[in-house]
């Protein structure tokens, strides 16, 4: 059974959509939201499969909602509705990865058929995720074997690359030329014969996300290379490892009763540099000031230079070669506001500047800010400042 979320600021429209025979599509729960914010609240607590949302709503739009939904490995499918045949909206829908873009008033049969297709895509993605998770479980149960018997022989020059890649493909492990691995060292503050315990704790905390390739072992320390199990950008992978390190330290102290020093090293381009690094142990500590460089500043530079294009989170992620979920999380941590709220605030700030310092007509200003429809810009501006652009300029 599936769950559906309907989003529209007009109560009559929402009631009409909710009254359709959704049970014929095996949908047993239909949730209704009057705004994008209310929709995001449902999405944070309910396992929604498909979202049907209007594009133009007070506050955040349907496009904004869809961009903020892109946070997980398998996201709900989204269908966008609009009362205006606007090519710009269709383009935005495509960029935001919507299943479809329908014009109001939409026929019941058309909407039901579109939701049916969305559910099929959702089912296929969930099935792929299930198969992948089962593969990961199989890998985790043999994680030490894979690290020591498949990866290590290649790293020390005892296996050719073609044979190595064929084995990775058999385990559904990423093997592209751009994949990167990271170094990790674990050192207990006090000496003692605790290797097996230490290895067991480290494996339990890291094997869900990485193959552990042990490099050097002593009774109280481990040096290893971590190879990602998922096809992820390296900053996102490093952020996951950093989070695991926090819990790893607590667990080691709890189980072994010793404090521990854990150092995450710099990433290496695996197929190009890993062999020489592994054989020479050229572990370069990761500089914290570099890793924690203000990602928000890079995001802001990109957005501000392309404000008239209305860049979304996925476009920023593509430009920075990063995961959109990672960017969204880091941006909120560094600035205290969401990416969507930031871009909205930036446009409104720019609008005020243009109204005060230029003689541009409102239509030109709306285009400068990336709004295809000047009337929509006027409504957004009035919601923000409780006056129209003309009233603001003439005050």
TrEMBL record:
InterPro entries: CheY-like_superfamily (IPR011006), Homeodomain-like_sf (IPR009057), HTH_AraC (IPR018060), Sig_transdc_resp-reg_receiver (IPR001789), Tscrpt_reg_AraC-type_HTH (IPR020449). CDD domains: REC_YesN-like (cd17536). The keyword Transmembrane does not apply. The modification 4-aspartylphosphate is found at residue 54. It comes from the Bacteria. SUPFAM superfamilies: CheY-like, Homeodomain-like. Keywords: DNA-binding, Phosphoprotein, Transcription, Transcription regulation. Residues 3-119 form the Response regulatory domain. Residues 297-395 form the HTH araC/xylS-type domain. PANTHER family: ARAC-FAMILY TRANSCRIPTIONAL REGULATOR (PTHR43280), HTH-TYPE TRANSCRIPTIONAL REGULATOR EXSA (PTHR43280:SF2). This is Two-component system response regulator YesN. The lineage of its organism: Bacteria, Bacillati, Bacillota, Bacilli, Bacillales.
